[in-house]
Every structure is written in structure tokens, then in C-alpha cells.
Amino acid sequence: MNLDFNSEKPIFVQIADGLEDAILTGAFEEGSQIPSITEISVTYKINPATALKGINILTDGGIVYKKRGVGMFVAEGAKEKLMEKRRNVFYENYVKELLAEAKRLGVTKKELIMMLEKGESL
Amino acid sequence: MSIEIKDVSKDFKNVRALNMINLTFEENKIYGLLGRNGAGKSTLLKIISNRIFSTSGEVIVDGEIARENDKALGKIYLMNESNLYPPKMKIKNIFKWTKEFYPNFDTEYALKLSRAFNLNVNKYPRALSTGYTSIFKIIIALSVNTPYVFLDEPVLGLDANHRDIFYKFLIEKYAEKPFCCVISTHLIEEVSSVIEDVIIVKNGEIIRNQTRDSILRTGFTVSGSAAAVDEFIKGRNVIGTDSIGGLKTAYVIGSMSGENIPDGIEISAMDLQKLFVQLTNS
Amino acid sequence: MKLKSIYKYLVCQSGKSYLIFFGVILAIVHIGLLITVSLDSNGGIGGMEMATLTYMLVSGVLIYRESLMVSMQNGISRKTFFIGSILTFITISIIASAGDVVINLLGNTYEKNCNMVYDSMYEQFFMKGIYDENVMVTPALSEYFKIFLLDSVMYITVSTIGLAVSVIYYRLSKAMKIIVPIAFIFICQILSVVIPYIDYNFFDSKIMNKVIPCMKWIVESNYHLMAVISCAAVLFIFISYLFIRRVPLNDSKK
Which of B71, C139, C155, C236 is the most buried (most CB within 10 A)? Predict the structure, then answer.
């Protein structure tokens, strides 16, 4: 996970995204432990409050949970939830825009499906 | 639980070094106290820690006036460029006496840091290089465990490796047991991700006092070809530009919310150091 | 408690250097003895308290600067530092007096048993006339207690003088640092030479006639001396406090 301090994206969001990516790719398996706030903040030299903010996004979304005295763990079904979440994002950010653009260009649904198949075969 | 600076002013002969400073340092937060040379940061820190007296105004620590007050002063530790330790005392003995004055001083931790930095505790402070003098003082500041710790230019003279170690120890300590830490420094970019709140001092006055995130959100950076950037920044509040050849970078106050990014332009976050330079140039 | 800490620190620092001093004095007494015995002559040493007195004065001056800085670094108020200093003076003075008694006992023992004249300041002041240099006088054991008291008070006073000098000096500007010592010497000269001279020639020694009996009374008995010196100590303590209260830590680099 690399943090870009110059990006428009706030650090805590980058941390949340980075952890989510790791969970999705299986780097952190469900039920396994993820790095602690201390570890993350020390490694990237950021304020622990920022790291905490990032992890809270995952905790709020039910992706990770805290085991008192031990640490933070990936929740069961986290991968599913993340997929679902990313699907929604995909829909909001890409699909809706695609449909709006298609409408502007006068592309019909049939033509759209043909384009999709064309693209898929590449 | 906090330190309140109320209407503090300081005059030296006929120069007003600090003018009606009003600030609060809350417990368990890391602050960045930024300002140009001579802005008044060190003066303020010396007043807080009772080394010099304010001309007017008060410093209140957890509800008590700090001036000449042992109890309040026992909660504060200042590390600055002064070396106030006796010349004929070895570092390990200085640790011993510091523990006498500050009962929460963690000698084990101090020795651990000394090993990490390669500091020989059998040496005399006078015999240390500039960098190692800073290291020696940092170690004490990190081991003293007072609720409020003030670091005035902590990394003066430290090489990149040692700076890295310092920040890591600071963050690790803060993560495990939070305390109020105020870092006064010129190395703004380095410290930018560590601090939560930014306080900017200019000519003895506070010109900015807000969270780091909000101060960064005051603007953004635009870069691209000179032509594209110039077009984009028309009518915007630009606080500075950099150019190299045909490439231009502009620093803009304002937000980009909802706008489309034109081609040929890259938008990135506002740079704290650049913002600072712009704000403090007279 | 901060007072206890700074007191402990000051006593340790002062004590260490006093021990070294004490060792040196012991050595000197024994060297004197050696010389007298080996040369088989009528030698003598005395007035060792002067050395201790000087030491205490210098100590008072030196302690101030360094320890004030240590106090500032460790969150100790000037008031607490001041009180700690006074307590330290009292402690070290008592120790030094005890040390003096030991030295005097030693010296007078040698005096009895070898051919060496040894006189403490007390003996010189209160037990001998000016012309009794080679007379051996040995104080009774009860006298030693008086010596102890007198010395303690003397050292405390001298330490406070040292502190007051240091404190005032620290607050002076560079120019004043040169002017004040010169003015001080000047004033001493006026007091001890010029005034008596004018008095003798113009006022028929009226002033001196009043002053000299006072001085006689003071040195008449060691208790009188102690009383006067104690008053002086209180005065210097007061002066020192006035100056320490507002002292800013000026030095940045050291």
C-alpha cells in the first residue's frame, strides 16, 4: 500500500482503500489480523488519528472488527460486502455515466450490447 | 484538560515580539506550530514553560496559572536549542536527575532510544555534535511522560535516518499512550502528516489556527502546460505559481467541487509548505 | 515534591565539591605538620576557616548560574529554587562547620603533641591577643561547640552574599558589569580611608568615636558577632529574592 501525500484523496481514505484492496485480493484473509493503528501510523509516519479514521471506515462498514486486547480482524463475509460496495460504486461512477453518455450520443440499447460484446472479445 | 494562552503579549525593549496571543492546546493532540524565523514561536514556548515572563496575559495549565507554579510546570516539558544541563554531568546521570524532577520519566525507554540512536550515555552533553545534542534532548523529551511536551526544532542537525527514527518513535509513543505534543519546526512537509492541527505565527500574531485537513482544503494545486493552467486559473484566487519551461504549477485558494477537470490539467492537493510560504511572505 | 528534588540536587552537587575541598584542607594541615616536624622548627598554621569562608563565597556564586538553568529545564519555579538554595546553604554550612571542627581538633591535637602552633580563626579572634602569635592555645572541648555555631552562621551568610552577588550581577547589562565592581571598590576605599581621614581632620574624629565602639562590641564576643552576621544574612537573602523573582533565562546557546 503506497500513500500519496500529494493526492486530492485524503490520507485516511487512501488507507481504507488500500486495506480494502488487500482484503479483496486475499492478502488479508477473512478471520486474519490486519495491521494495528500503531503499526500503520509508524510505517507511514502519519498521525494515528488519521489511521484510526481510515480503519473506522472499515469498522463501520462491517469489514473489520476489533477483538479487545488482541487487534483488528477481517470479518467473515467481508469480501462479499466489499464486492457489493464496489459494485455499487461501479454502478454509480461508471454505469450511470455510460448510460447518460450513450443517451447523449443516441446509442441504442442494442448497439450498446453489441459494443460490450465487441469490447469483451478483445 | 488543556493549556490556555490568554491575551499573551511580550515586549523586548521596544519590539513587540508577541501580540495578544490567544490559543488553546488540548490534551492528546499533536500540534504543528509553524512560523518563519523570528515570528515569535520560541518566545511563546519559553513563556509557556516559565523561562521568560510575558509582558501581559496569562498561561493557564489545567485551570491553574502557570507562572512560577511548580504543579503546573510539572506537567510541561520544553525541549529547545538551549542546553541547560551541567557541563560535568554524564548523560546517564542527567537521566537519573531528570527522573528525580519528573517522577514519570521512563529510564528504560530513554536507554532503549539511546541504543536505537546510537547515543553513548557515558558521554558528556558538551562533547556531542549538533545532531547528537538534539538526539539527547529528544530522548529526554520523549521519555519524560508529562501531559504536555513542547519540541522547538527537535530535528535540528539530524540526518535523514535519525529524523526517520525520531518520527517513528514519536508516533509509536503517541499511538500507545497519547499526550499533547507541540512541534515547532521549519520542516513543514516532513511534519505535515504527523500533526493534526496547524498554528501559523507571523510577526508575533496567530494568522491561522485550524486542523491540518481543513487548512489543506482551503485550496488545491493545478499543474500542466502553461497555456492550459493560465486558462484554468482565470478569475481564481491564486496565491502563487511555479514555472519550468512550458510547464506551470499554480496554487489556488478555493475548491473544485463539482467541476469537471479540463484536459491537460492535473489537480492535486494543496501543499502545506507552499501554502505556508505564501501566507507568511510579507 | 519539587522542593525536595531541587534541594537533593543542590546538596549533592555542593556536597561533592565540598568533599574535595575538605580533602585538600586535610592535606594542607598534614603537610604543615610534616614540614614543622621535619624541619624541627616553630612553625604554625592557622585560620583555615578563611579558606572555607572563601570556598563558601565562591560556591554561592557558582551554584547560582548552573543550578538555576537546571531548575528552568526541569520545570522548577524560581521561588522553589531560591528556597532550595537557602536550605542547601544551611545544610552545607553546618557540614562545613563540622568539618572545621574536625580540622581544628586535628590541628590542636598536633599542637599539643608536636611543636606546631595551630590556631583556628576563633582562637585568633577570641582567645589570643594580636601579639601572641607563637603562643599555643588549645580550646577546651566546650569551645568547639561555639566554634561550630559561629562558623555555621558565618558560612551561611557568606553563601548568601555569594548568591546575592551572582544574582545582581546576572541582571546587569554589559556596561554595568564593569562599572559596578569598580564603583564597589571605590566605595570601599571611601569608607575605609577617605571618611576616617576627613573625620580626623575636620570633625575631630566624632564619627570614628561612634563607629569604633560599635565595632568593638561586635567582636567582643562570638555571640555578638553571630547576631550581626545573621542580620546581614537576612538582608542578603532578601536582596537575592528580589532579584531572582523576575530573572529571565537569557542565554540561548551554551
Answer: C155
